[in-house]
Amino acid sequence: MLTIVLGVVAAGLSAALGWLAxxxxxxxRLRRKQAFFGLPDNSESLxxxxxxxxxxxxxxxxxxxFALLELAAIVKDCNAHAQIVAHDAAQQGFGERTxxxxxxxxxxxxxxxxxxxxxxxxxxxxDPEPGPDRGAFQIGSERYRLEAGRAEYVILARLxxxxxxxxxxxxxxxGQRAITNQAATRYLARRHERLWRKHGNAxxxxxxxxxxxxAYGPDVVELVADVTRxxxxxxxxxxxxxxxxxxxxxx
Length: 251
What we know:
Blueprint: H1 2-37, E1 44-49, H2 62-77, E2 81-86, E3 98-102, H3 109-118, E4 122-124, E5 137-139, E6 142-144, E7 151-159, E8 170-175, H4 178-199, E9 204-211, H5 213-216, E10 221-226, H6 228-232
Helix pairs in contact: 2-4
């Protein structure tokens, strides 16, 4: 009888310790996720939506809706709340609430403002006229052209105004097409722990490439480079044109 009782007690202690260990690890992962996204319990966040380029103000493309669903799931997992705001109605600074801003500057005025003030080393060609550079990214001295359906680029950034824990980050998903915005949000949702281990609470800017989206959709994504330094530094100014010297002497 004593042996049976001791066995039951030992099994109960093992189960209790296992449950405590799993609970501790789960809470640790949750706190780390909340810190990375700036979303403590019951906090508020903004989902800033764009519009379809050339369309009505409140028309959101299908892939951008999917991107918002990815972000809403992240907010819910952090026990926080999300408020959806149109790009031209989010007239406030950043740092008080975590912000997720979706869409390129052609369709999102808020994104245009963020690029101008936070990422001076990034330029996006928003010319509506067809051409090889339409939608192209320039980051520092490098240019990345859009090849629709084959190779499309998107900037994924986590930016803060300081290192204080009270400052909430802004996440940018600036893609050449709507499907790349969805790809970037999915990349963030799947790899946030790896990004936390590498960057912690620091700002970062990643350039991603969506490969063959016409066949694979938003699922095949490659990391092109960490472009944080180039994106946060002013674009290099082109050298001024010089007038060639005459090789003829007056006689």
